[in-house]
Amino acid sequence: MDGNGRWAKKRGMPRTYGHREGAKVCKKIVNRCIDLGIKYLTLYAFSTENWKRPQDEVDELMRLFDKYLDEIFDNRKQKARILFLGDKAPFPAPLRVKMEKLERESEEYSDRTTVMFAMNYGGRDDIVHAARRAAQLVVEGGADPGDIDEKMLDSLLYTSGAADADLIIRPGGEKRLSNFLLWQSAYAELYFSDVLWPDFDEKELDKALNEFALRSRRFGGV
Ligand code: IPE
Ligand code: MG
After folding, report:
1. For ligand 1, is residue 5 a contact (CB within 6 Å)?
2. CA dihedral over 87, 89, 91, 95, signed as positive or negative
3. Cβ(171) to ligand 1 under 6 A?
4. Atom 6 of ligand 1, residue of closest alpha carbon
5. Residue 137 confidence (pLDDT)
6. Which residue among 1, 4, 170 has the greatest number of ligand 1 atoms within 8 angstroms of its CB, and so is best to mutate?
7. Superfamily of domain 4-120+167-214
8. Is 50 annotated as catalytic?
9. Is 75 part of the annotated catalytic residue set?
């Protein structure tokens, strides 16, 4: 979800205004994906690198996450499995508690859309975290280093149990992955849009899905 800051700047407003509008779009897109029956939706909300931003912007983002999670709780028609990707430890304790509670309480919707919020997420951190857990299994669990294979590492990632990414949509004009789902995107189709995130809507999502439907996917085969 990129382009909030530029969207606000174009309107002579502080960056945080863009984040507030972006959060509203996030809700719209989540609902649309649930309605479409999409099995997994991953939203890149906050990267391991985003802590470098000015403290007041980070604080505002934390406040927005807190408020947004409350709205998910209240909105019981939004029956979706909620998961968070990334280490929760650096988040303020009340936010962390809310994240854990949502994960626990949405477990009953496991057969529906799974919405994964990548928060304090980095693709490299994801792989390091999985490698560490694999090493632990070798040291403590009696596994053999030779047992570590793609299937095992995949099962130790934050996205454990979820399918690989089929389509990655990046709004905001930049053409890079910025440390998003590096392992899981091995065969993902990439879609770049110049639309800034606060202007991204259901129509833009449909455009991306329609283009995805036209792609020929061979996964290295012929
Ligand atoms: C949102 O967009 C990304 C978040 C970290 C929430 P940006 O804040 O990166 O907006 P731009 O790229 O500066 O316009
Ligand atoms: Mg950006």
Report:
1. yes
2. positive
3. no
4. 45
5. 95
6. 4
7. Decaprenyl diphosphate synthase-like (3.40.1180.10)
8. yes
9. no
Does ligand 1 have an atom closer than 6 angstroms to the CB of 3? yes
Catalytic residue among 31, 50, 87, 201: 50
Residues 77-133 have pLDDT tens digits of 668 999 999 999 999 999 999 999 999 999 999 999 999 999 999 999 999 999 999
Q: What is the rounded distance in angstroms from the CA atom of residue 69 to the CA atom of residue 212?
A: 30
CA distance 176 to 75: 34
pLDDT digits (tens, 9 = 90+) for 35-73: 999 999 999 999 999 999 999 999 999 999 999 988 877
Task: Say how many Å lie between the CA of residue 66 and the centre of ligand 2.
Answer: 21
**Summary count for the chain: helices (H), strands (E):** 7, 5
Residues 6+ apart with CB under 8 A from 70: 98
Least confident range of 8-12, 13-17, 31-35, 178-182:
31-35
